[in-house]
Specification:
single chain; mainly alpha; Growth Hormone, Chain: A
Amino acid sequence: MTNQTKSSVISPIVTIGALFFIFGFVTWANSTLIPFLKLACGLKTDFEAFLVTFASYIAYFFLALPSSWILKKLGFKNGLVIGLIVLGVGSLVFIPAASSRSFGLFLTGIFIQGAALSLLQTASNPYISIIGPIESAAKRISIMGLCNKFAGIIVPIIMGTLFLKNASGIEAKINDVTTTVAQKEALLAEVLGRVYTPYIVLAIVFVAFALFIKYSHLPEVDVDKEEVIEGEDIKTAKTSIFQFPHLFLGAFCIFVYVAAEVMAGDIIGVYGKELGISPDISKYFTTLTLTSMLVGYFIGIATIPKYITQQAALKICAITGVIFVCAAYFTDGYTSVIFVGLLGLANSLMWPAIFPLGIKGLGKFTKTGSAIMIMGIAGGAIWPLIYGYLKDYAGMHFQLAFFVSVLPCYLYIWFFAVSGHKVGKKA
């Protein structure tokens, strides 16, 4: 929206920034919930624990297109209000889940939260892309990323301190053959009781923010407006979403990007534990990943598009990812963990670059195209399970399993940065 004044853009950017903080807080809580629920629900393998990320991210695959329909029917603002209320409902499901010690009910609450985030992200990402020039969309999304990843940095510290306090000691007592059944039950009840207050508070915050959105003055953007696509005249105007192959290549790029991001962020604690590092230390490793992402976002804000283009930044990040994955595999101990954490730096500018490249030139198909891009977030559901299967059931060494599951992600992102985003576009 090039005719908007600078002041009219700042207010919605601040509001959407607050939403991205919420996205980050809820999403990156998974890094704490994985070891927490493995302990509290007595799960036997990491593969089972990784169903936490599966429940969270698979919701995007099923709910992204319905979210687009909801936004078309009810509008941008009402869609945000509904999404925040549903997010609050998903948080409240944690209360009966903890009372009954039901892993299935926890997964239900996480899925409901994922469904809400699907609606919120389907609305927010195209909004922040289109609120200003598309050429600087990566910069605006990078600003949103700062909000998202700042939340992600503090979540492991807050949730890890609340949920995983003395996790090593509790785990040792539960596994001790001299501990009676009654003592084990009391320990598990105490651990699960840590859920109540945080998730009730979160539910209240989400509903309060929904009311704020309802009565705020967010400007609407016409994402359905016809757009002249570069190199295309009126006679050859697109009539179907399937006439944009770069969109589907971009959606798959989001798929593998989120897979790589989740592997570096949510799985790093488990990875560190496999290296023999205490859970009381490894529970904070996600903060390392997200801090390095934060550094990357600052770099993106300073350099895009003034010094480098969105696709150039994406190419650099993909190459960096390949280097760091290899370095993590060929090192050990804290050094290996640091390279996994540094994948956050490689991942930082990927979403800000991939999303606008994927929806560029869609015109009236932007809402549907954005929903298809959001469906790609399901990559975060699949990849941890692949890693868990290779490690727990295929007998592969955990570092090799990490290497063979993550490296292809960066290689595909590299392809999309070089030529994939140009497919189907006229020169």
